[in-house]
Amino acid sequence: MWKASVSLTETTSTATSQIMPTLPKEAFKLHGGCFCKAITYTVSIPELEARPLLGRAITDSFGPKTEVSERLPLISLDHCNSCRRVAGSILQCWLIIPISWATFLLLPRSVDPKSPNAAESLIITPTLDVLKGKKDLIETTYLKTFATSEQVARVFCGNCGTHLTFLDVEDAQSATKWGGYFDIAVGTLEKQSVEMDGFMPYRQGHLVDGIGWVKRLVDDGARSMDEK
């Protein structure tokens, strides 16, 4: 299931803009992490031909389908109540990718994130161990997890409180052509990554939970961007 009980084939977008996603066809990387840098990550997105196809329904979006938007990564606005409350944001935005694309580095709890050389102590950690909140990582690093439902784990930084990821256990064990996948909070990406050409949400989910004025702002904003 995608995002806490939304089917991979469910269409939930009502936006009408013709914004066209233009992420690079070539391989590229995105970088991000929590506010205090105790948890950082790199997303390595391969060249276009190596990116899994999304399928017809899930690419119903803010704009027409292209060869880029028909494949992962998926950048989606999420109106669901749980993501709004947990993140403390009126609207969540996710980058949805295969688990294999992400590399996480964690800072040992014995190192102060404010120390000048803290970045030198970051340790590369298996991605699935991070997403599931492996016990030894919870005990020895700043990694924390919170379960908003029985099968969902969300990763936070135990030092600065940043909400980083969403994992559905079924998604992690997915046998589809996507392989296991998860969501990264777009707000945790470095500014350079968020501002790269073509990086923008092109789908909405959980509109039934959405707040009326937020949905209107999204639709009005999408139309104004299309007019430029």
> What is the radius of gyration computed over CA atoms, rounded to a whole number of angstroms?
17 Å
Q: Output the CATH topology.
A: Metal Binding Protein, Guanine Nucleotide Exchange Factor, Chain A
The biggest sheet, with number of strands, parallel, antiparallel or mixed sense and barrel status, is: 7 strands, mixed
Largest sheet, spatial ordering of strands = 7-8-9-10-4-3-11
Low-pLDDT runs:
1-18
The averaged pLDDT comes out at 84
CATH class equals Mainly Beta
N-to-C span: 36 Å
Question: Can you give the helix content as a percent range?
Answer: 10-25%
Helix-strand sequence: EEEHEEEHHEEEHEHEH
CATH architecture: Beta Complex
Dominant shape: globular
Q: Number of domains in the coordinates?
A: 1
Strand content: 25-35%
- Structural class computed from helices and strand pairing: alpha+beta
Number of strands: 11
Number of distinct helices: 6
General description of the model:
The chain is globular. A hairpin with a 2-residue loop joins β7 (143-149) and β8 (152-157). The protein contains six helices and eleven strands. The strands form two sheets. A seven-stranded mixed β-sheet has the order 7-8-9-10-4-3-11. Strands 1-2-5-6 form a four-stranded antiparallel β-sheet. It has a single domain (28-227), classed as Metal Binding Protein, Guanine Nucleotide Exchange Factor, Chain A. With 228 residues, the protein is of the alpha+beta class.
